[in-house]
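Re: flavin-adenine dinucleotide structure - here you go.
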Amino acid sequence: MHIACLGGGPAGLYFAISMKLRNPAHHIVVIERNKAGDTFGWGVVFSDQTLANLTTNDPVSAATIAASFAHWDDIEVVVGADRVRSTGHGFIGIGRKRLLNILQDRARELGVELRFETEFDDDVTAYADYDLVVAADGINSRIRTRYEDRFAVDIQTRANKFMWLGTAKLFDAFEFIFEKTAAGWIWAHAYRFDDTRSTFIVECSQSTWQGLGFDRLDGAEAMTALETIFARHLDGEALLSNAAHLRGSAAWINFRRILCGQWSFDNVVLLGDAAHTAHFSIGSGTKLALEDAIKLAEVLDSADVRDRAALAAALAEYQAVRHVEVLKIQNSARNSTEWFETLDRYLGFEPIQFAYSLLTRSQRVSHENLRLRDPAWLGEVERWFAANGPPAPPMFQPFALRDLTLPNRVVVSPVLTYEADDVGRVGAFHLVHYGARAQGGAGLVIAEMTAVAPEGRITPACPGLWDDDQIAGWRTITDFVHRHSRAKIGIQLGHAGARGATCVPQGNRYDVPLGQGAWPLLSASAQSWRPGGAVPTMMTLVDMDRVRDQFVAATRRADAAGFDLIEVQAGHGFVLSSFITPLMNRRDDAFGGNLAARLAWPLAVVAAVRAAWPAHKPLALRISAHDWHDGGIGPDDAVHIAAAFAGVGVDVIDVSSGETAHDAKPVFGRMYQTPFSDQIRNEAHVATMAVGNIYEADHVNSILASGRADLVALGRPHLVNPMWTLHAAAELGCLAVHVPAAYAAGQMQLTQHRKRAAEALMG
Ligand SMILES: Cc1cc2nc3c(=O)[nH]c(=O)nc-3n(C[C@H](O)[C@H](O)[C@H](O)COP(=O)(O)OP(=O)(O)OC[C@H]3O[C@@H](n4cnc5c(N)ncnc54)[C@H](O)[C@@H]3O)c2cc1C
Ligand SMILES: Cc1cc2nc3c(=O)[nH]c(=O)nc-3n(C[C@H](O)[C@H](O)[C@H](O)COP(=O)(O)O)c2cc1C
């Protein structure tokens, strides 16, 4: 096979090596514009897993690479004068130059033809004599650019500026160094990669960059200014650039996230950074490039590449396998990139929490991962989180809202049970359901959406608090919860609006109009919630006053029923939400138009609820922080919405999303709504409850310790496991949770079993 490899970075060289190892008869030429050994950049980091993959593929080069590694375990987060160090992180680093030299030597030894100082032709017809053209020409790939349409290229330019520098100062840990300047924060990612040098990547926001005048300084001047800013960390060493061509204004870069929908056409295939990039803050670009190279060599090895169909199948397999890996890494990389883009939010944290937030930023590292890496440090985090209380994982720490103290941070999310009678009363089912979940250890149980008016029900089987007759059923439940558990109990009050008068869901069929027995609907605008759905009446001022008064009356009944907390449902397209989201609010009066106008009535309702609810009892509010729809609400709006409700006395925002448009496109995933909670909590400075696809204790502890929420609600996990919190306590060996006396023996046994299982696992 004749192969032209365009670009002699890690991807191109390692692919050439991998092909030659599989069949020495291949003729492979690598075309590289730089001289051998002349390269940009400093060190690159790897994980142990990457080294294992390299060893399986080519033990010879892997052994040389391993012998050149610098190894370190510690990460130190330095914020001004504060230092927080943790260990057990296990990194290996190597100079990019050294890595390339090793790969060049190995390629030569295997008979690869290396053509340095040669600019390749980006017209692929120039390679008619070759069976395969491999574009391994990096992030600025000329081949990818020229044939952009064939590769379905998706490029996202990120907000921050960075410069990839080196220094002779040898750091003994991977250091993240944050310095405050008059123009804002600037930071360095610094790590030693051999006996004489460290990488020193400097990053800051666009506004800090401009504020510091970097837009007017050339590369050399910028480096001098950076030496001054980071002087106390450099011990007199200079900052270095080994890329003369990068000096000048081009030295500052905005990272570009690249993803291709198609990785090949005909006999042309993309490899490494040409096909995809991963933000430098998670250090995975070289790993991806090398692993691409191995996979491409593998699929080509078993294909007859002169047969076009066989080649196409092999290249499709390469893309299918590698694309999944790349998406995983890009997902983590996006979280990490966003963390560095929004870190102003966290700089008010105490240093230990700031460090924790940084370490868990990509969401690949969790609370329990950190416990494994550095149990002593994690213990310190847990003691800090516990403040003066007894140390226990964050989820078992109490949380105070006004005069109410929740015994822990786990919340049973409101979930409709569709078990009320046809006049909205709760009964035996609800007593058992809520009673069991309260006894299961959660700190707070929030009862399902309860209608403030009969026409505010979603289905005929939804409960209500529009009538005094409905109080007694709830009172039985709250009395039971207060007598037989330590949990507090809240109730979600809502009005279905345009989403009312639907059938009790069957399987996955939600929001099916009732037909017979349907009642007239009210909403911000005369717009059905989904095509074919009933069209509500646009609310008049009289309707708005009446519904407000219904919320107030239900609030008084909730107090009489013994609830500790009210959560107002202002999300999910129900009546209050229909005013807030522009997707449902088409009004042209004082209650439609901009956000302030759309919020006016919901705020008036919540203010009235607050006034009717005893001052010592807390008020929560659920919002849809993201409409997942063009023209809808996004998380930035949600910060304003949350702040506005906090301004009328809401104590905690329950951060949900969606259900405001039938054709919304939510991006589901683990903890997928938690970033909105994070943004609201740390930008609007209001307490939040995170919810949505959070199902492990490890998720809960990670969210709480990193300050992304104050409480964590779980819905579906509690449907199948009322004792979710007690199980989590047993798993974590935590005894700081109340167990009803009748169940204590079971909890003790479970805790012991878990402990033994964990010990067996550790050997
Ligand atoms: C600041 C920064 C820090 C990073 N840190 C890390 C890290 O810690 N760990 C990690 O794994 N990765 C890191 N990376 C990413 C890493 O550098 C890349 O992911 C990796 O180099 C990709 O390898 P590649 O072979 O695909 O591309 P490249 O390394 O970019 O190689 C492409 C090659 O093609 C050559 N070329 C391009 N066009 C032409 C042409 N027309 N003619 C001839 N030759 C051409 C170039 O000279 C170059 O040698 C970092 C990147 C940056 C920017
Ligand atoms: C069957 C069902 C009923 C629900 N009922 C309500 C409700 O009454 N009020 C509400 O705000 N959310 C309701 N939700 C949403 C949940 O409170 C929760 O936000 C959602 O299920 C995501 O959390 P999870 O992944 O932990 O389940 C309901 C969800 C389900 C699955």
